[in-house]
Design a protein that fits this description.
By secondary structure, this protein is mainly alpha-helical. It has two helices and no strands.
Length: about 80
Amino acid sequence: MQHGKYTLGVIVAFTIGAGCKLTGIPLPAPPVLEGSLVVASMTVGHVVVDRITEWRARKSHSVSTAPNRDDGSDKEAD
């Protein structure tokens, strides 16, 4: 699924860029190096957080699928 997200992202980016060029709309990206680094940093941050959250979800899912050993023996009787 990861390759599909990246492929879709590249297709959308090229479509927006081509659409802006053909219609004469200014490209929605900074024209200076510092601005480009901000965009790249945001992209890298998004990808890293996406992978961390997927990893944590898989980790918690594997823990939650472990057999439940709580038989209720620690509860006080009325």
